[in-house]
Specification:
By secondary structure, the chain is an alpha+beta fold. The chain folds into 3 domains: about 15-275, Bira Bifunctional Protein, Domain 2 (BirA Bifunctional Protein, domain 2, 2-Layer Sandwich), CATH 3.30.930; about 290-385, Rossmann fold (3-Layer(aba) Sandwich), CATH 3.40.50.800; about 400-465, Translation Initiation Factor IF3 (2-Layer Sandwich). About 35% of the residues lie in helices and about 25% in strands. The protein has helices at about 15-25, 40-60, 75-80, 80-85, 115-125, 170-190, 235-240, 265-275, 300-315, 330-340, 350-355, 375-400, 410-415, 425-435; strands at about 30, 35-40, 65, 70-75, 90-95, 100-110, 130-140, 155-165, 195-200, 210-220, 225-235, 245, 250-255, 255-265, 290-295, 320-325, 345, 355-360, 365-370, 400-405, 420-425, 440-445, 460-465. Helix 2 (about 40-60) packs across helix 6 (about 170-190). The protein is globular, with a radius of gyration of 25 Å. The protein starts with 13 loop residues before the first helix and ends with a strand. It binds one RNA strand through helix 10 and helix 11.
Length: about 475
RNA sequence: CGGGCUGUAGCGCAGUUUGGUUAGCGCGCUGCGUUCGGGACGCAGAGGUCCCCGGUUCAAAUCCGGGCAGCCCGACCA
């Protein structure tokens, strides 16, 4: 049955729908300074889940967490020409502190290649010190003129990995490993987002990198969102910061470095990749609350039953919330739907009389009457099914909205509603410029089988073309 | 940087043209009661430097001058 809508519908006005979800699911607010963001507890809980899953994968890949300063000497940026050029428009610079003008202005980090490079140079002496694999969880500042909560804010949270290796091959292999085993794996298996993987065109590459790997997700309005990046920095930063090591025969050599990151933008991606007209849809493996137990009535027997169901589910490893029946049923249901909780467990007098509860999946709204003695296993089963279904639905949607084309004009047309796929060598620099003129871009370049190439010079590569956030 | 628009309760707005008693409305909020299987309702309440400064006037949210802030479009940047 159609209920009066709490949100602007996606088809009506997608950006407005997004803002409504962020506000009504209590995820974030605008901060007092334009472009800043207050992340509210529910939004932060989602970020903490993202952090936990990615951090575990990062550690499996061998990197260790560390922390570097927020303030970076301005002179550091000048050392790598492309890097400084790329970042200077969005730098926030402190020129006055401690009651006086600073002798050297201090940059608020937009990314940490430079400071970390400085310290890598200090810590690396010998080939025995390599590879050096670091990661940090931090906030960064990139001054934004057109901010949007989670997607583009002047300050945001992220993870940035920085590594140094003794060879180009080792560095490239590590960047690829992070790209696939941390980011792609997390996106596919936790966030249920089937990302297109590939490398960035030279034009879209990170400032200072020799190659950038990317995971591009399709949002429900058909636009692309870059969900992670992994960069091969070659010897650019090693040269700028003198990151050298002695090889086995005693000669000094420059390191090869990488950097890679994913940010709170992923929360925005989560909203737009799965959300529907009823609000957010959180995949069960990511959900801070996997099941909400709703007391249909605020009555002692019902509340008691809810408390015992809650305890049993927690014992069974399900993270739960308990809704104690204050306020109207419909309103409470709607509020939990907006928050995207995967499973709603309704417990009312009618259920209890029959020795059952009613479970409702968030993704398809299907109702399941479940006997009390099969609570935990059924709950687990429905969560797992929903996790799979979300990925499969997103994959089908992505493939349906991806059109193979043979000309730039066709690519532009396809990009109005989805993605276009086209031979990379048929686009060329000129074609890419024409795309950019109409706010369409080459999101990534991949092999025909969809895997990530190691260089843009491989033959027969295809480009994924779309509008983007 | 150019053009357009807007600042009134937590949010969204009306009122300003034509100055006039106590500045309203919707949502939200507080209390009580009835409700509760898909966004409930009644009654009673709380909440305002009408962006700021100055001027005109018996009287300014309203008229005049100056300032500040924000939004949209364009340009720039990626």
């Amino acid at each position: 049955m159609a209920s009066p809508s709490a949100l602007t519908s996606q088809s009506d006005d997608f950006p407005r729908w997004y803002q409504d979800v962020v506000a009504k699911a209590e995820m974030a607010d605008n901060g007092p300074v334009r472009g800043t963001m207050v992340i509210r507890p529910y939004g932060y809980a989602l970020w903490e889940r993202i952090q936990a899953e990615m951090d575990a994968r990062i550690k499996v890949a061998g990197a260790q967490n560390a922390y570097f300063p927020l303030f970076i000497p301005q002179s550091y940026f000048a050392r790598e020409a492309e890097h400084v050029e790329g970042f200077s428009p969005e730098l926030a610079v402190v020129t006055y502190a401690g009651g006086e003008e600073l002798a050297e202005p201090v940059v608020v980090r937009p990314t940490s290649e430079t400071v970390i490079g400085e310290f890598m140079a200090k810590w690396i002496q010998s080939y025995r010190d390599l590879p050096l694999l670091l990661n940090q969880w931090a906030n960064v500042v990139r001054w934004e003129l057109r901010p949007r909560l989670f997607l583009r804010s002047s300050e945001f949270l992220w993870q940035e990995g920085h590594t140094a290796h003794d060879s180009y091959e080792d560095a490239a292999a590590y960047a690829m490993r992070i790209h696939l085993e941390v980011y792609y794996d997390f996106l596919a298996n936790v966030m249920a987002v089937p990302a297109y993987v590939g490398i960035k065109s030279p034009r879209e590459r990170f400032a200072g990198a020799i190659n950038s790997l990317t995971c591009e997700g399709m949002m429900r309005d058909g636009k692309a969102l870059q969900m992670s990046t992994s960069h091969e920095l070659g010897q650019n930063f090693a040269r700028a910061f003198n990151i050298v090591y002695q090889n086995e025969s005693g000669q000094s050599e420059l390191c090869h470095t990488t950097s890679w990151g994913a940010s709170t933008r992923l929360v925005g991606g989560l909203i737009m990749a799965h959300g529907d007209d009823r609000g957010l849809i959180v995949p069960p493996r990511l959900a801070p609350i996997q099941a909400v137990i709703i007391a249909v009535r605020d009555e002692p027997e019902v509340l008691e039953a809810c408390a015992s169901i809650d305890a049993r589910l927690r014992d069974g490893g399900v993270s739960t919330a308990l809704d104690r029946g204050r306020g109207s049923f419909g309103r409470r249901v709607t509020d939990w739907e907006i928050k995207g909780v995967p499973l709603r467990i309704e417990v009312g007098p009618r259920d209890l009389a029959g020795g059952v509860v009613t479970m409702v999946r968030r993704d398809d709204g299907s109702k399941h009457v479940v006997a009390l003695d099969r609570l935990a296993t059924t709950c687990q089963g429905l969560l797992e099914e929903q996790q799979r279904a979300l990925f499969n639905v997103a994959l089908a949607r992505r493939d349906d909205a991806t059109t193979d084309v043979t000309s730039v004009d066709e690519a532009i047309e396809a990009a109005q509603t989805g993605f276009a796929r086209m031979a990379w060598d048929q686009i060329g620099e000129l074609g890419e410029a024409r795309l950019n003129e109409v706010a369409v871009s080459v999101r990534c370049i991949q092999r025909a089988d969809g895997t990530t190439p190691v260089s843009p010079d491989e033959p027969d590569l295809v480009a994924i073309v779309a509008k983007s956030y």
